[in-house]
Amino acid sequence: MKRRRIAVFLLLLLLIVGILGIIWGNSSLVTTEYTISFPALPEAFRGLRIVQLSDLHNAEFGADNRRLLEAVSAAEPDLIFLTGDLLDSRRTDRAVALKFVREVIKIAPVYYSLGNHEGRIPEVYEPFEEELRKLGVQVLRNEVAVLEREGQQLYIAGIDDPEFFPSQEEFLACLNGLCDDEGYTLLLSHRPELFGDYCDAGAELVFSGHAHGGQFRLPWVGGLYAPHQGALPEYDAGLFSQDSTNLIVSRGLGNSIFPFRLFNRPEVVVAILEDAA
Predict the structure, then answer these.
(1) Axis crossing angle, helix 66-74 with helix 94-104, rounded to the nearest 10
(2) What residue numbers bound the domain in which 258 lies?
(3) I want to staple 236 with a disulfide (CB 3.0 to 4.6 A). Which of 52, 173, 214, 259 is the partner?
(4) How many domains would you assign to the chain?
């Protein structure tokens, strides 16, 4: 009887530790920093610091997202990129998202591209976009913003998620029209599995999300599943390079269909631009 009680106690203890571990792993933010080197990067943009936030899905980290705002502020960004799924189509809370944006834009200029969840709720998203623009967010709907410093230019392009396009061909045609052959293009595009298309288009640096880090991550394996990639996704998280194009895939912040993450803490990405010389 005594051994049985000990066994039950140990099982309960393991269960409690496991639950606490999951709670901590889904609410404890981590900041990941990448230094991206470009050949002949214009001098005015050397050292530019960009914070990328992706797939918030209406999540909150502390009251009014205070912990997330503190993490963004601590990164000292020059720019902030939001790469889709700020809203969640299944439990949409526009007020929570707007409250966060109202505060984060005080830290640095905000650029926003759309994810697949925004594409599923046009009746909610359209008035939401109007409110974002009133707050000063640069919503990049298949367009390019020009960032100028000391007479030099950097191009920031944003493309809607393929969910918004009638066909893949129209998405690709739009993508190819956004990347400038003459200058440096930073592209905000939600889907990482389209990396080959971003390379073909000529973007120098792409910021994506969508994969949620593979949701459950295992050592030496990586993420286990990502939407539109399936099991053991290739582009689950991190920095990828091919030819002259770099891709940063954020593990994201919130959850959607899967209610929790495993060994996959919510992530704030910091990208620092440097000259390759």
Answers:
(1) 30
(2) 2-275
(3) 214
(4) 1
